[in-house]
TrEMBL record:
Superkingdom per UniProt: Bacteria
Protein name stated in the entry: Rhodanese domain-containing protein
Transmembrane segments: none
Domain annotation Rhodanese: ranges: 34-131
InterPro entries documented for this protein: GlpE_sulfurtransferase, Rhodanese-like_dom, Rhodanese-like_dom_sf
Species lineage: Bacteria, Bacillati, Actinomycetota, Actinomycetes, Kitasatosporales
UniProt cross-references to PROSITE patterns, sorted A to Z: RHODANESE_3
Amino acid sequence: MGAAHVTKRSVDELLAEARQGLERVGPEEAAAVQSAGGLLVDIRYAALRERDGTIPGALIVERNELEWRLDPQCDHRLPEATHHDLQVVVICNEGYASSFAAVSLRQLGLTWATDLTGGFQAWRAAGLPVR
């Protein structure tokens, strides 16, 4: 089997490319999305949630399950994943992995998926509710 030609790019380049298509939101905007019926989706791993807390009302979906849980066409979707027009804000710890996750959700047809600039740490620093 021959090796395919692969363009070598840094993770910073990939991240910048991913973010070009996203309208990232700040903590207050994310709270407004949630108030309007959109979904906040926390993809942080358990140790970070246990250490720092969680956002009340946010769905907890570990990163390795995200696409299956939010794809409205998937048999393994969450009950909240009702249609492709959902407003979804993905939240990681500091706002890096969430950008890649939001792009993946957009590829599934969730056209309003985005992520929280600065992640959970920015939410907490803004003084927004944490459980």
